[in-house]
Amino acid sequence: MGVPVLIYSLLFSVFVLILLTCLCFLLLGPSKYAGPAAGSPGAVVSVDVLVLGDIGRSPRMTYHALSIAKHGGKVNLIGYLESPPHPGLINNTNITITPLPTPPQRPQSIPFILFAPFKVLYQIYHLFSLLAYSLPPAQWILVQNPPSIPTLAVASLVCHLRNSKLMIDWHNYGWTILAGTRGPRHPLVYLSKFYECYFGRLGHFHLTVTKAMARQLRAPPYKITNPMIDVHDRPAAIFQPIFSKSEREQVLNRVLPASQRQLVPQIMEGTMRLLVSSTSWTPDEDFSILLDALIKYAAAATGEIVVPVLAIITGKGPQKEMYLRKIADLTAAGRLPNVRIDTAFLPFPDYAKLLACADLGICLHMSSSGVDLPMKVVDMFGAGLPVAAYSGYESFGELVKEGENGHGFETAGELAGIIARLLSARGAAELVALRRGAVREGGLRWDEMWDATVGTALGLTTEKRT
Ligand SMILES: *[C@@H]1O[C@H](CO)[C@@H](O)[C@H](O)[C@H]1NC(C)=O
Ligand SMILES: *[C@@H]1O[C@H](CO)[C@@H](O)[C@H](O)[C@H]1NC(C)=O
Description:
Blueprint: H1 3-28, E1 46-54, H2 59-70, E2 74-80, E3 95-99, H3 112-134, E4 140-145, H4 151-162, E5 165-170, H5 174-182, H6 187-200, E6 205-208, H7 211-218, E7 228-230, H8 245-255, H9 264-269, E8 273-278, H10 287-299, E9 309-314, H11 320-332, E10 339-344, H12 348-357, E11 360-363, H13 375-382, E12 387-390, E13 406-409, H14 412-423, H15 428-443, H16 446-458
Parallel strand pairs: 1-2, 1-4, 2-3, 4-5, 5-6, 6-7, 8-9, 8-11, 9-10, 11-12, 12-13
Helix pairs in contact: 1-3, 2-16, 3-4, 5-6, 8-12, 10-14, 13-15
Transmembrane segments: 6-28
Main location: endoplasmic reticulum
EC number: 2.4.1.142
Protein backbone atom coordinates (compact mmCIF):
# COMPACT_ATOMS: atom_id res chain seq x y z
CA MET A 1 0.00 0.00 0.00
CA GLY A 2 1.47 3.36 -1.08
CA VAL A 3 1.75 6.30 1.27
CA PRO A 4 -0.91 8.42 -0.53
CA VAL A 5 -3.46 5.62 -0.21
CA LEU A 6 -2.67 5.38 3.47
CA ILE A 7 -3.09 9.13 3.86
CA TYR A 8 -6.36 9.24 1.97
CA SER A 9 -7.89 6.32 3.83
CA LEU A 10 -6.83 7.93 7.10
CA LEU A 11 -8.31 11.24 6.10
CA PHE A 12 -11.49 9.51 5.08
CA SER A 13 -11.84 7.68 8.38
CA VAL A 14 -11.16 10.91 10.24
CA PHE A 15 -13.85 12.60 8.20
CA VAL A 16 -16.35 9.88 9.06
CA LEU A 17 -15.44 10.11 12.73
CA ILE A 18 -15.87 13.86 12.71
CA LEU A 19 -19.23 13.46 11.05
CA LEU A 20 -20.38 10.92 13.61
CA THR A 21 -19.21 13.04 16.53
CA CYS A 22 -21.00 16.07 15.18
CA LEU A 23 -24.16 14.11 14.51
CA CYS A 24 -24.25 12.85 18.07
CA PHE A 25 -23.99 16.40 19.33
CA LEU A 26 -26.51 17.70 16.84
CA LEU A 27 -29.10 15.23 18.05
CA LEU A 28 -28.82 16.73 21.51
CA GLY A 29 -29.58 20.18 20.09
CA PRO A 30 -27.83 23.23 21.54
CA SER A 31 -29.90 26.24 22.60
CA LYS A 32 -30.24 29.10 20.15
CA TYR A 33 -29.41 32.76 20.39
CA ALA A 34 -32.78 34.52 20.56
CA GLY A 35 -31.85 38.09 21.55
CA PRO A 36 -31.86 41.15 19.34
CA ALA A 37 -30.38 40.68 15.89
CA ALA A 38 -26.65 41.20 15.63
CA GLY A 39 -25.82 44.78 14.72
CA SER A 40 -29.17 46.22 15.82
CA PRO A 41 -28.79 49.27 18.05
CA GLY A 42 -29.44 48.94 21.75
CA ALA A 43 -28.79 45.23 21.97
CA VAL A 44 -26.20 44.00 24.46
CA VAL A 45 -23.54 42.63 22.17
CA SER A 46 -22.18 39.24 23.16
CA VAL A 47 -19.16 37.85 21.37
CA ASP A 48 -17.27 34.59 21.69
CA VAL A 49 -13.71 35.49 20.70
CA LEU A 50 -11.98 32.29 19.65
CA VAL A 51 -8.33 31.60 18.97
CA LEU A 52 -6.82 28.14 18.80
CA GLY A 53 -3.61 29.45 20.30
CA ASP A 54 -2.12 30.91 23.46
CA ILE A 55 -4.21 33.90 24.56
CA GLY A 56 -1.10 35.56 26.00
CA ARG A 57 0.55 35.47 22.59
CA SER A 58 -2.52 36.51 20.59
CA PRO A 59 -2.31 40.30 20.85
CA ARG A 60 -4.80 41.05 18.10
CA MET A 61 -7.57 38.86 19.53
CA THR A 62 -6.80 40.33 22.95
CA TYR A 63 -7.27 43.85 21.56
CA HIS A 64 -10.54 42.84 19.92
CA ALA A 65 -11.75 41.48 23.29
CA LEU A 66 -10.66 44.61 25.17
CA SER A 67 -12.28 46.92 22.62
CA ILE A 68 -15.57 45.01 22.68
CA ALA A 69 -15.56 45.09 26.51
CA LYS A 70 -14.74 48.80 26.57
CA HIS A 71 -17.90 49.54 24.63
CA GLY A 72 -20.00 47.44 26.99
CA GLY A 73 -20.07 44.21 24.97
CA LYS A 74 -19.79 40.88 26.78
CA VAL A 75 -16.87 38.71 25.74
CA ASN A 76 -16.03 35.08 26.21
CA LEU A 77 -12.39 34.80 25.24
CA ILE A 78 -11.60 31.22 24.32
CA GLY A 79 -8.08 29.89 23.82
CA TYR A 80 -5.14 28.21 25.51
CA LEU A 81 -3.86 29.67 28.77
CA GLU A 82 -0.11 29.17 28.51
CA SER A 83 1.68 32.48 29.04
CA PRO A 84 0.19 35.23 31.23
CA PRO A 85 -2.62 37.02 29.39
CA HIS A 86 -2.72 40.81 28.94
CA PRO A 87 -3.39 42.42 32.36
CA GLY A 88 -6.42 44.26 30.98
CA LEU A 89 -8.18 40.93 30.54
CA ILE A 90 -7.87 39.96 34.19
CA ASN A 91 -10.72 41.09 36.46
CA ASN A 92 -12.43 42.76 33.50
CA THR A 93 -16.12 42.69 34.34
CA ASN A 94 -17.08 42.31 30.69
CA ILE A 95 -14.62 39.56 29.76
CA THR A 96 -14.64 35.92 30.79
CA ILE A 97 -11.62 33.88 29.85
CA THR A 98 -12.62 30.34 28.98
CA PRO A 99 -9.48 28.22 28.68
CA LEU A 100 -9.30 25.32 26.27
CA PRO A 101 -7.57 22.18 27.50
CA THR A 102 -4.13 21.86 25.93
CA PRO A 103 -4.23 19.02 23.39
CA PRO A 104 -1.99 16.00 24.01
CA GLN A 105 1.57 16.35 22.74
CA ARG A 106 2.74 14.06 19.98
CA PRO A 107 5.09 11.35 21.29
CA GLN A 108 8.32 11.19 19.23
CA SER A 109 7.55 7.63 18.14
CA ILE A 110 4.21 8.43 16.44
CA PRO A 111 4.38 10.08 12.99
CA PHE A 112 2.61 13.41 12.41
CA ILE A 113 0.18 11.98 9.88
CA LEU A 114 -1.12 9.40 12.37
CA PHE A 115 -1.22 11.73 15.32
CA ALA A 116 -2.74 14.84 13.71
CA PRO A 117 -6.24 13.35 13.22
CA PHE A 118 -6.46 12.42 16.89
CA LYS A 119 -5.37 15.86 17.94
CA VAL A 120 -7.95 17.43 15.64
CA LEU A 121 -10.70 15.15 16.96
CA TYR A 122 -9.76 16.08 20.50
CA GLN A 123 -9.95 19.76 19.59
CA ILE A 124 -13.26 19.36 17.75
CA TYR A 125 -14.79 17.64 20.75
CA HIS A 126 -13.71 20.32 23.22
CA LEU A 127 -14.47 23.27 20.96
CA PHE A 128 -17.86 21.98 20.00
CA SER A 129 -19.01 21.06 23.49
CA LEU A 130 -17.81 24.45 24.74
CA LEU A 131 -19.24 26.64 21.98
CA ALA A 132 -22.46 24.72 21.50
CA TYR A 133 -23.29 23.70 25.06
CA SER A 134 -21.21 25.08 27.94
CA LEU A 135 -21.41 28.71 26.87
CA PRO A 136 -24.65 30.61 26.41
CA PRO A 137 -25.46 31.38 22.77
CA ALA A 138 -23.67 34.52 21.60
CA GLN A 139 -24.66 37.08 19.03
CA TRP A 140 -21.30 36.72 17.31
CA ILE A 141 -18.44 34.28 17.16
CA LEU A 142 -15.23 36.07 16.21
CA VAL A 143 -12.63 33.54 15.15
CA GLN A 144 -9.00 33.98 14.23
CA ASN A 145 -7.74 32.35 11.06
CA PRO A 146 -5.25 30.59 11.00
CA PRO A 147 -5.20 28.12 12.62
CA SER A 148 -8.30 27.21 10.69
CA ILE A 149 -8.52 23.47 11.41
CA PRO A 150 -10.84 22.75 13.11
CA THR A 151 -11.92 26.21 14.34
CA LEU A 152 -13.51 27.49 11.12
CA ALA A 153 -15.62 24.37 10.63
CA VAL A 154 -16.70 24.13 14.26
CA ALA A 155 -17.44 27.85 14.57
CA SER A 156 -19.51 27.95 11.39
CA LEU A 157 -21.46 24.88 12.44
CA VAL A 158 -22.14 26.34 15.89
CA CYS A 159 -23.21 29.64 14.33
CA HIS A 160 -25.64 27.78 12.14
CA LEU A 161 -27.05 25.77 15.06
CA ARG A 162 -27.25 28.62 17.54
CA ASN A 163 -28.32 31.46 15.29
CA SER A 164 -25.05 33.35 15.89
CA LYS A 165 -23.12 35.33 13.31
CA LEU A 166 -19.63 34.34 12.29
CA MET A 167 -16.93 36.96 11.98
CA ILE A 168 -13.59 35.74 10.65
CA ASP A 169 -10.43 37.70 11.37
CA TRP A 170 -7.98 36.74 8.63
CA HIS A 171 -4.40 37.09 9.89
CA ASN A 172 -2.98 34.90 7.17
CA TYR A 173 -3.84 31.65 5.39
CA GLY A 174 -3.33 28.30 7.08
CA TRP A 175 -2.56 26.49 3.84
CA THR A 176 0.31 28.78 2.80
CA ILE A 177 1.94 28.26 6.20
CA LEU A 178 1.48 24.51 5.81
CA ALA A 179 2.95 24.68 2.30
CA GLY A 180 5.99 26.38 3.82
CA THR A 181 6.59 23.60 6.32
CA ARG A 182 5.37 20.50 4.40
CA GLY A 183 6.12 21.51 0.82
CA PRO A 184 3.59 22.93 -1.66
CA ARG A 185 2.59 19.53 -3.11
CA HIS A 186 1.70 17.81 0.14
CA PRO A 187 -1.87 16.41 0.02
CA LEU A 188 -2.69 18.14 3.30
CA VAL A 189 -1.92 21.48 1.64
CA TYR A 190 -4.59 20.90 -1.03
CA LEU A 191 -7.02 19.68 1.58
CA SER A 192 -6.51 22.63 3.89
CA LYS A 193 -6.73 25.08 0.99
CA PHE A 194 -10.08 23.62 -0.04
CA TYR A 195 -11.24 23.61 3.59
CA GLU A 196 -10.23 27.22 4.15
CA CYS A 197 -11.91 28.41 0.96
CA TYR A 198 -15.09 26.51 1.70
CA PHE A 199 -15.54 27.47 5.34
CA GLY A 200 -14.14 30.95 4.77
CA ARG A 201 -17.14 31.71 2.57
CA LEU A 202 -19.49 30.87 5.46
CA GLY A 203 -18.33 33.89 7.49
CA HIS A 204 -20.97 36.63 7.70
CA PHE A 205 -18.35 39.32 8.14
CA HIS A 206 -14.63 39.37 7.44
CA LEU A 207 -11.70 41.31 8.82
CA THR A 208 -8.30 41.27 7.15
CA VAL A 209 -4.90 42.56 8.25
CA THR A 210 -4.19 44.18 4.87
CA LYS A 211 -6.04 45.61 1.89
CA ALA A 212 -4.11 43.19 -0.33
CA MET A 213 -5.50 40.27 1.65
CA ALA A 214 -9.04 41.60 1.29
CA ARG A 215 -8.51 41.86 -2.48
CA GLN A 216 -7.31 38.25 -2.59
CA LEU A 217 -10.22 36.96 -0.53
CA ARG A 218 -12.66 38.54 -3.00
CA ALA A 219 -11.02 36.68 -5.88
CA PRO A 220 -10.77 32.95 -6.63
CA PRO A 221 -10.18 30.52 -5.06
CA TYR A 222 -11.76 32.17 -1.99
CA LYS A 223 -14.53 34.17 -3.72
CA ILE A 224 -15.90 35.65 -0.51
CA THR A 225 -18.87 37.93 -1.16
CA ASN A 226 -19.96 38.88 2.38
CA PRO A 227 -18.94 42.24 3.89
CA MET A 228 -15.22 42.65 4.51
CA ILE A 229 -13.02 45.38 5.97
CA ASP A 230 -9.29 45.69 6.38
CA VAL A 231 -8.22 46.36 9.97
CA HIS A 232 -4.52 47.04 10.18
CA ASP A 233 -2.64 46.04 13.30
CA ARG A 234 -1.66 48.89 15.57
CA PRO A 235 0.94 49.08 18.29
CA ALA A 236 -0.08 48.43 21.88
CA ALA A 237 0.07 51.37 24.26
CA ILE A 238 3.23 49.88 25.79
CA PHE A 239 5.19 50.84 22.65
CA GLN A 240 5.96 54.55 22.94
CA PRO A 241 8.82 56.68 21.61
CA ILE A 242 11.36 57.99 24.09
CA PHE A 243 12.29 61.60 23.41
CA SER A 244 14.28 62.39 26.56
CA LYS A 245 18.05 61.79 26.45
CA SER A 246 18.33 60.98 30.13
CA GLU A 247 15.52 58.45 29.92
CA ARG A 248 17.18 56.81 26.92
CA GLU A 249 20.44 56.54 28.83
CA GLN A 250 18.74 55.06 31.88
CA VAL A 251 16.86 52.53 29.82
CA LEU A 252 19.96 51.46 27.90
CA ASN A 253 21.82 50.93 31.16
CA ARG A 254 19.04 48.70 32.33
CA VAL A 255 17.96 46.64 29.31
CA LEU A 256 21.17 46.05 27.34
CA PRO A 257 22.96 42.77 28.06
CA ALA A 258 25.33 43.42 30.99
CA SER A 259 28.42 42.81 28.86
CA GLN A 260 27.44 45.64 26.47
CA ARG A 261 26.55 48.32 28.99
CA GLN A 262 29.98 49.93 28.83
CA LEU A 263 28.99 50.99 25.30
CA VAL A 264 26.12 53.20 26.49
CA PRO A 265 28.16 56.46 26.45
CA GLN A 266 29.18 55.80 22.83
CA ILE A 267 25.62 54.98 21.85
CA MET A 268 24.45 58.20 23.48
CA GLU A 269 27.11 60.18 21.56
CA GLY A 270 26.23 58.48 18.30
CA THR A 271 29.76 57.12 17.83
CA MET A 272 28.23 53.68 18.09
CA ARG A 273 24.88 52.80 16.55
CA LEU A 274 22.30 50.45 17.98
CA LEU A 275 20.42 48.05 15.71
CA VAL A 276 17.61 45.90 17.01
CA SER A 277 16.04 42.92 15.35
CA SER A 278 13.68 40.37 16.77
CA THR A 279 13.55 37.04 15.03
CA SER A 280 11.91 33.68 15.54
CA TRP A 281 15.18 32.01 14.40
CA THR A 282 13.30 29.86 11.92
CA PRO A 283 13.98 29.26 8.20
CA ASP A 284 11.16 31.63 7.19
CA GLU A 285 13.01 34.50 8.82
CA ASP A 286 16.34 34.09 7.16
CA PHE A 287 18.78 35.44 9.72
CA SER A 288 21.66 34.87 7.32
CA ILE A 289 20.54 37.96 5.36
CA LEU A 290 21.24 40.17 8.37
CA LEU A 291 24.44 38.35 9.22
CA ASP A 292 25.72 38.62 5.64
CA ALA A 293 24.74 42.27 5.56
CA LEU A 294 26.72 42.94 8.74
CA ILE A 295 29.74 41.10 7.29
CA LYS A 296 29.53 43.23 4.15
CA TYR A 297 29.07 46.34 6.27
CA ALA A 298 32.14 45.50 8.34
CA ALA A 299 34.18 44.81 5.22
CA ALA A 300 33.21 48.06 3.48
CA ALA A 301 36.04 50.02 5.04
CA THR A 302 37.02 51.52 1.70
CA GLY A 303 36.17 55.16 1.17
CA GLU A 304 34.24 55.77 4.34
CA ILE A 305 34.71 55.24 8.01
CA VAL A 306 32.47 52.49 9.28
CA VAL A 307 30.51 53.54 12.34
CA PRO A 308 30.73 50.77 14.94
CA VAL A 309 27.47 48.92 15.37
CA LEU A 310 25.93 47.00 18.22
CA ALA A 311 23.19 44.65 16.98
CA ILE A 312 20.87 43.23 19.62
CA ILE A 313 18.83 40.26 18.44
CA THR A 314 15.86 39.25 20.55
CA GLY A 315 13.69 36.16 20.34
CA LYS A 316 13.94 32.43 20.84
CA GLY A 317 13.98 29.76 18.19
CA PRO A 318 15.41 26.57 16.74
CA GLN A 319 18.30 28.04 14.72
CA LYS A 320 19.57 30.34 17.45
CA GLU A 321 22.42 28.14 18.71
CA MET A 322 23.62 27.42 15.19
CA TYR A 323 23.85 31.13 14.37
CA LEU A 324 25.46 32.00 17.71
CA ARG A 325 28.28 29.56 16.93
CA LYS A 326 28.59 31.05 13.46
CA ILE A 327 28.76 34.58 14.89
CA ALA A 328 31.42 33.51 17.40
CA ASP A 329 33.48 31.92 14.60
CA LEU A 330 33.16 34.97 12.36
CA THR A 331 34.12 37.30 15.20
CA ALA A 332 37.12 35.13 16.08
CA ALA A 333 38.19 35.12 12.42
CA GLY A 334 38.12 38.92 12.36
CA ARG A 335 35.27 39.08 9.83
CA LEU A 336 33.14 41.35 11.99
CA PRO A 337 35.36 44.32 12.92
CA ASN A 338 33.34 47.21 14.33
CA VAL A 339 30.30 44.98 14.62
CA ARG A 340 29.10 43.42 17.83
CA ILE A 341 26.19 41.02 17.78
CA ASP A 342 24.51 40.00 20.99
CA THR A 343 21.23 38.35 21.87
CA ALA A 344 18.70 39.12 24.55
CA PHE A 345 15.44 37.71 25.73
CA LEU A 346 13.64 40.54 27.45
CA PRO A 347 10.36 40.90 29.31
CA PHE A 348 7.83 42.61 27.06
CA PRO A 349 8.00 46.10 28.68
CA ASP A 350 11.82 46.08 28.42
CA TYR A 351 11.67 45.00 24.79
CA ALA A 352 9.31 47.92 24.09
CA LYS A 353 11.79 50.32 25.72
CA LEU A 354 14.77 48.86 23.89
CA LEU A 355 13.02 49.50 20.56
CA ALA A 356 12.47 53.13 21.56
CA CYS A 357 16.20 53.52 22.29
CA ALA A 358 17.56 51.96 19.10
CA ASP A 359 18.72 53.75 15.93
CA LEU A 360 17.29 51.32 13.42
CA GLY A 361 15.03 48.26 13.54
CA ILE A 362 15.60 45.33 11.22
CA CYS A 363 12.78 43.01 10.19
CA LEU A 364 13.45 39.74 8.33
CA HIS A 365 9.82 38.59 8.14
CA MET A 366 9.06 36.83 4.86
CA SER A 367 5.35 36.51 4.31
CA SER A 368 4.10 33.01 3.45
CA SER A 369 0.92 34.39 1.89
CA GLY A 370 2.44 37.59 0.53
CA VAL A 371 -0.39 39.59 2.06
CA ASP A 372 0.18 39.62 5.82
CA LEU A 373 2.32 42.09 7.76
CA PRO A 374 4.87 41.67 10.55
CA MET A 375 3.54 42.78 13.92
CA LYS A 376 7.09 43.57 15.02
CA VAL A 377 7.31 46.43 12.51
CA VAL A 378 4.02 47.78 13.85
CA ASP A 379 5.57 47.69 17.34
CA MET A 380 8.78 49.36 16.12
CA PHE A 381 6.75 52.23 14.68
CA GLY A 382 4.86 52.45 17.95
CA ALA A 383 8.23 52.95 19.64
CA GLY A 384 9.14 55.57 17.01
CA LEU A 385 11.82 53.36 15.46
CA PRO A 386 12.43 53.50 11.69
CA VAL A 387 12.97 50.14 10.00
CA ALA A 388 14.83 48.32 7.31
CA ALA A 389 12.56 45.43 6.41
CA TYR A 390 12.49 42.57 3.94
CA SER A 391 10.17 43.81 1.21
CA GLY A 392 9.65 40.94 -1.22
CA TYR A 393 5.90 40.56 -0.76
CA GLU A 394 2.76 42.30 -1.97
CA SER A 395 1.41 44.00 1.14
CA PHE A 396 4.77 45.45 2.25
CA GLY A 397 3.90 49.01 1.14
CA GLU A 398 0.77 49.07 3.31
CA LEU A 399 3.01 49.38 6.36
CA VAL A 400 6.50 50.51 5.41
CA LYS A 401 6.46 53.65 3.28
CA GLU A 402 9.72 53.70 1.38
CA GLY A 403 11.80 56.71 2.41
CA GLU A 404 9.11 57.91 4.82
CA ASN A 405 9.37 55.57 7.80
CA GLY A 406 11.84 52.98 6.55
CA HIS A 407 13.40 51.17 3.63
CA GLY A 408 12.84 47.78 2.07
CA PHE A 409 15.50 45.28 1.00
CA GLU A 410 15.52 41.90 -0.66
CA THR A 411 19.20 40.97 -0.48
CA ALA A 412 21.97 41.18 2.08
CA GLY A 413 23.77 43.63 -0.21
CA GLU A 414 20.81 46.00 -0.22
CA LEU A 415 20.49 45.77 3.55
CA ALA A 416 24.22 46.46 3.99
CA GLY A 417 23.81 49.54 1.79
CA ILE A 418 20.88 50.83 3.86
CA ILE A 419 22.72 50.27 7.13
CA ALA A 420 25.89 51.94 5.83
CA ARG A 421 24.02 54.98 4.52
CA LEU A 422 21.63 55.56 7.43
CA LEU A 423 24.17 55.05 10.18
CA SER A 424 26.89 57.23 8.65
CA ALA A 425 27.14 61.02 8.82
CA ARG A 426 25.75 61.41 5.29
CA GLY A 427 22.57 59.58 6.29
CA ALA A 428 22.02 61.41 9.57
CA ALA A 429 19.40 63.82 8.22
CA GLU A 430 17.60 61.00 6.44
CA LEU A 431 17.51 58.91 9.61
CA VAL A 432 16.00 61.83 11.53
CA ALA A 433 13.32 62.21 8.86
CA LEU A 434 12.58 58.47 8.92
CA ARG A 435 12.27 58.60 12.68
CA ARG A 436 9.69 61.38 12.36
CA GLY A 437 7.82 59.21 9.87
CA ALA A 438 7.93 56.23 12.22
CA VAL A 439 6.60 58.29 15.13
CA ARG A 440 3.81 59.56 12.87
CA GLU A 441 2.85 56.08 11.66
CA GLY A 442 3.09 54.67 15.21
CA GLY A 443 0.84 57.46 16.47
CA LEU A 444 -2.11 55.90 14.67
CA ARG A 445 -3.49 53.69 17.40
CA TRP A 446 -5.93 50.85 17.58
CA ASP A 447 -8.89 52.44 19.36
CA GLU A 448 -10.08 55.04 16.84
CA MET A 449 -9.58 52.69 13.93
CA TRP A 450 -11.33 49.81 15.69
CA ASP A 451 -14.32 51.94 16.71
CA ALA A 452 -14.81 53.04 13.14
CA THR A 453 -14.56 49.56 11.65
CA VAL A 454 -15.17 46.50 13.82
CA GLY A 455 -17.12 48.42 16.46
CA THR A 456 -19.56 49.64 13.84
CA ALA A 457 -19.91 46.18 12.31
CA LEU A 458 -20.72 44.69 15.72
CA GLY A 459 -23.22 47.44 16.47
CA LEU A 460 -21.16 48.77 19.40
CA THR A 461 -20.22 52.13 17.91
CA THR A 462 -21.91 54.28 15.36
CA GLU A 463 -18.89 56.12 13.97
CA LYS A 464 -18.39 56.07 10.27
CA ARG A 465 -15.02 55.19 8.87
CA THR A 466 -13.08 58.23 7.73
C1 LIG B 1 -18.24 46.97 30.86
O1 LIG B 1 -19.46 47.37 30.28
C2 LIG B 1 -20.10 48.48 30.89
C3 LIG B 1 -21.41 48.70 30.18
O2 LIG B 1 -22.20 47.54 30.21
C4 LIG B 1 -19.21 49.68 30.81
O3 LIG B 1 -19.82 50.79 31.47
C5 LIG B 1 -17.87 49.36 31.47
O4 LIG B 1 -16.99 50.44 31.33
C6 LIG B 1 -17.25 48.12 30.87
N1 LIG B 1 -16.08 47.73 31.64
C7 LIG B 1 -14.86 47.57 31.12
C8 LIG B 1 -13.82 47.16 32.09
O5 LIG B 1 -14.58 47.74 29.96
C1 LIG C 1 -7.88 40.57 40.41
O1 LIG C 1 -8.67 40.45 41.55
C2 LIG C 1 -8.08 39.71 42.61
C3 LIG C 1 -9.06 39.61 43.78
O2 LIG C 1 -10.36 39.87 43.40
C4 LIG C 1 -6.77 40.37 43.03
O3 LIG C 1 -6.14 39.61 44.02
C5 LIG C 1 -5.87 40.52 41.83
O4 LIG C 1 -4.70 41.24 42.19
C6 LIG C 1 -6.56 41.24 40.70
N1 LIG C 1 -5.70 41.22 39.54
C7 LIG C 1 -5.52 42.27 38.74
C8 LIG C 1 -4.58 42.09 37.61
O5 LIG C 1 -6.08 43.33 38.89
